[in-house]
């Protein structure tokens, strides 16, 4: 149980070969060329510079890149292949310090700049859009992070800067966004690996549950077939009715025995249900005399218990922090608390200027959680964003957002944009927290977004009318919510692999479209995002049309061909804008040709996210595909005779910075890994071999999404083929995972996605539309007429029908350019607010950078 929370990997001193320094009178400067695109710039009047770790920068030792220095008496230039810095050797100013990147010039102004945005400390009270702090990505050729006022670490303890010094970083990446983020992580530290169970469904509600009520609720979720992995208990777990002389009841560390008469038994019951437990902590009011553990904490800090003095919260006092963790919280953790929900809302100041209490709480809670690895598997905390570098302390809690369509519409953009500052593991109050209105449709759409968010946590305020259990809604939305919550757990094999990719490959799970595409259009859809390397999510965040009974979202698809995994009879040509329509049961989930997605199809899903006994590989044919399924190291398993897959280079690197940064991570080769490869031309799918696993049998299936051709066959005896809902599923039976050559299946050469049946799909959509019967025939005739497509498109647009109907029909008609009579290339969309044809090219002009 011993944990040294004052030790963590870092290498803050820079490579001296990368440093250019000097002085002119009382102007002292130092530049560190970290890479040929990343520059640290420092200035001081006293001649001192900072070599200690900051909250932003833990690892400043990089191999020295190639650069040139040109120096004269009053001028210094530093030149790399990507930037040209010019400096007059005086106090930094816009006239004296500049850098040209490509054809763009940055001039020093003391501010951070990254016009694509980063994230924010909290969504508390947000009705809709809020202002975001800068990230390290920009539509310009550069971004800048000012680090002059951040907290420091000195021998593991907090420290502060000398006022007046300048310390900043220039990111000169000219829209090479992924390279900028990779080097940001090299400087600041990678995202840690999350435990597998953190990727499942979390239940949370601000409500004064009794122990019996909470356990009964968990049992009802189980009876409903809805798996959970984390039980969150909000602040009513502790005493909230406190003696008035001690202030409010927000802070507390003593179980409310009226609600939880036997806390040990309660926590044991949750563990027996395979749930991890986190308790809410508002620490601001310190430890007060009515607390059960007050005598023990007072003794540790030398307080006279008889005086009954409150022990104030002071995170700048190392002795207090030790007692807080090693006396107070350790006692609760021994009872069965797995990790802590730090709900700090009291500002960013302490008695030491420059020390933000949220930073201190996040940093030391995370490091202290290492003592619980026997239960947690990985260190973990749950708290608010404190600034650049916060990605090292997952998981983020975004705060108490209002329940509005505007808030729902902003949340996917907020999540994706956070990756611009490396912050990949937001947990939102799915469904919204407070105020607003009750809307079953909004609740369903929010749950859909939550399933395709980094963390899926239902939550709501302390209100008898506001709760997120699916059965608290009407029958249809409740059933839909249940289906989506089940889907979240089925995605865990994929999510865990993305978790490893995020930590080891500097690829956050959620990424804005412009991370992967250089087209200007990628910047105009900030609420659309990649969810892993091949999946594009375009959430629907507005009410359904009363005419089509569907919600809609304006999306942009990059070049290529895509199929909707949840509506596989729709295939889209990319390279254009589209309006996508879905009923309440679906959201657009688009996979490009050559996608492999493994999901858990175990018949009955269990709490706690155990490894699946049955996996179905969703395969989108049309191009070669590869996916390596990664699972956590098996307990008490025996290794395969090959310790690592061929070519797996482990974590060793000549870069000392990398060695320090990865010191606390397990070797990548220690994980269980199963390659899955599809050869499009030969029609062969190979599963395995599994590396580092137990070699047990596992049921495997293959689902060809969007393909229903009759050519599918296999060289596997006893396989079964079934076709339904626009896809073909091949059941392979149990496969031993130790076959040294993998498990090979022939499915058919050069398989292609089915061509969209325009007439059938338009008929289905039009049939469902709630509109005048007499107006349906002209719509149908426009799609199926014999004259040219452009003329029929114009005829459709001229009809006196609801604009949403025109767009829903156009989506299908123009989806697949291979379809006979397709409108692809002639498509026109209608602005549903004005009824006018929507000029999508205006988006490039209208897009406002956050």
Automatic annotation (TrEMBL):
Q: Which reaction does it catalyse?
A: Hydrolysis of terminal, non-reducing (1->4)-linked alpha-D-glucose residues with release of alpha-D-glucose
Enzyme Commission designation: 3.2.1.20
Where are the membrane-spanning stretches? Answer: none
- For this UniProt record, give its keywords in alphabetical order, as a comma-separated list: Glycosidase, Hydrolase
Domain (Glycoside hydrolase family 31 TIM barrel) spans 192-498
Homology family: Belongs to the glycosyl hydrolase 31 family.
Official protein name in the record: alpha-glucosidase
């Amino acid at each position: 149980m011993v944990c040294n929370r004052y030790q963590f990997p870092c290498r803050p001193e820079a490579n001296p070969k990368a440093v250019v320094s000097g002085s002119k009178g009382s102007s002292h400067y130092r530049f560190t060329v970290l890479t040929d695109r990343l520059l640290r710039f420092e200035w001081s009047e006293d001649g001192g510079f900072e070599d200690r770790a900051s909250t932003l920068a833990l690892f400043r030792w990089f191999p020295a890149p190639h650069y040139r220095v040109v120096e004269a008496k009053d001028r210094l230039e530093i030149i790399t292949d990507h930037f040209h810095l010019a400096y007059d050797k005086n106090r930094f100013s816009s006239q004296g310090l500049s850098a040209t990147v490509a054809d763009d010039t940055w001039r020093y102004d003391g501010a951070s700049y990254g016009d694509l945005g980063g994230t924010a400390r909290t969504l508390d009270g947000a009705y809709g859009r809020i202002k975001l702090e800068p990230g390290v990505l920009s539509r310009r050729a550069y971004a800048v992070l000012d680090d002059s006022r951040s907290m420091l670490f000195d021998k593991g303890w907090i420290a502060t800067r000398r006022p007046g010094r300048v310390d900043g970083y220039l990111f000169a990446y000219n829209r090479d966004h992924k390279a900028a983020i990779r080097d940001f992580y090299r400087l600041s530290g990678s995202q840690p690996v999350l435990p597998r169970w953190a990727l499942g469904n979390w239940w949370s509600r601000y409500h004064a549950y009794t122990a019996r009520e909470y356990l009964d609720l968990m049992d009802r979720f189980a009876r409903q077939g809805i798996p959970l992995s984390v039980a969150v208990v909000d602040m009513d777990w502790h005493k909230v009715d406190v003696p008035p002389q001690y202030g409010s009841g927000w802070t507390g560390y003593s179980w409310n025995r009226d609600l939880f008469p036997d806390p040990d038994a309660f926590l044991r019951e949750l563990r027996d249900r395979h749930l991890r437990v986190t308790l809410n902590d508002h620490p601001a009011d310190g430890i007060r005399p009515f607390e059960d553990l007050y005598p023990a904490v007072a003794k540790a800090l030398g307080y006279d218990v008889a005086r009954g003095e409150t022990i104030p919260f002071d995170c700048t006092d190392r002795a207090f922090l030790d007692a807080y963790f090693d006396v107070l919280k350790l006692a609760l953790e021994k009872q069965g608390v797995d990790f802590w929900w730090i709900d700090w809302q009291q500002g960013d100041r302490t008695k030491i200027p420059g020390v933000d209490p949220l930073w201190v709480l996040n940093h030391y809670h995370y490091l202290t959680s290492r003592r619980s690895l026997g239960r947690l598997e990985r260190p973990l905390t749950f708290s608010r964003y404190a600034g650049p570098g916060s990605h090292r302390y997952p998981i983020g809690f975004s705060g108490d957002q209002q329940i509005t369509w505007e808030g729902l519409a902003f949340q996917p953009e907020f999540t994706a944009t956070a990756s611009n500052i490396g912050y990949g593991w937001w947990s939102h109050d799915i469904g919204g927290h407070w105020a607003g209105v009750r809307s079953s449709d909004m609740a369903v759409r929010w749950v859909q977004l939550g399933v395709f968010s980094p963390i899926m946590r239902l939550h709501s305020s302390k209100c008898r009318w506001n709760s997120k259990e699916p059965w608290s809604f009407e029958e249809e939305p409740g059933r839909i919510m249940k289906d989506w919550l089940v889907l979240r757990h089925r995605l865990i094999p994929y999510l865990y692999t993305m978790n490893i990719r995020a930590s080891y490959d500097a690829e956050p799970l959620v990424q804005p479209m412009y991370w992967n595409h250089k087209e200007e259009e990628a910047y105009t859809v900030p609420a659309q995002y990649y969810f892993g390397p091949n999946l594009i999510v375009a959430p629907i965040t507005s009410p359904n049309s009363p005419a089509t009974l569907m919600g809609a979202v304006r999306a942009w698809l990059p070049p290529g061909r895509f199929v909707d995994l949840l509506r596989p009879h729709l295939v889209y040509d990319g390279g254009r804008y589209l309006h996508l329509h879905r009923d309440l049961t679906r959201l657009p989930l688009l996979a490009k040709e050559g996608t492999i997605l493994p999901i858990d199809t175990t018949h009955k899903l269990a709490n706690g996210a155990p490894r699946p006994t049955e996996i179905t590989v969703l395969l989108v044919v049309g191009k070669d595909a590869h996916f390596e399924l990664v699972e956590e190291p098996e307990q008490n398993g025996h290794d395969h005779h090959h310790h690592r897959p061929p070519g797996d280079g482990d974590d060793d690197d000549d870069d000392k910075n990398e060695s320090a940064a990865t010191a606390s991570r397990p070797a990548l080769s220690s994980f269980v890994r199963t390659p899955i490869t599809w050869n499009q031309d030969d029609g062969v799918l190979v599963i395995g071999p599994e590396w580092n696993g137990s070699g047990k049998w596992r049921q495997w299936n293959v689902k060809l999404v969007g393909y229903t051709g009759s050519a599918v066959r296999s060289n596997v005896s006893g396989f079964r083929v079934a076709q339904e809902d626009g896809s073909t599923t091949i059941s392979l039976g149990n496969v031993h995972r130790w076959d040294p050559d993998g498990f090979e299946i022939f499915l058919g050469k050069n398989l292609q996605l089915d061509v969209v049946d325009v007439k059938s799909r338009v008929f289905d959509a039009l049939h469902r539309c709630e509109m005048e019967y007499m107006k349906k025939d002209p719509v149908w005739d426009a799609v199926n007429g014999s004259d040219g497509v452009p003329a029929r498109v114009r005829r459709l647009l001229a009809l006196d029908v609801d604009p949403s109907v025109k767009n829903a029909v156009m989506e299908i008609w123009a989806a697949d350019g291979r379809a006979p009579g397709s409108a692809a290339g002639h498509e026109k969309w209608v602005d549903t607010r004005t009824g006018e044809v929507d000029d999508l090219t205006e988006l490039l002009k209208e897009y406002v950078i956050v």
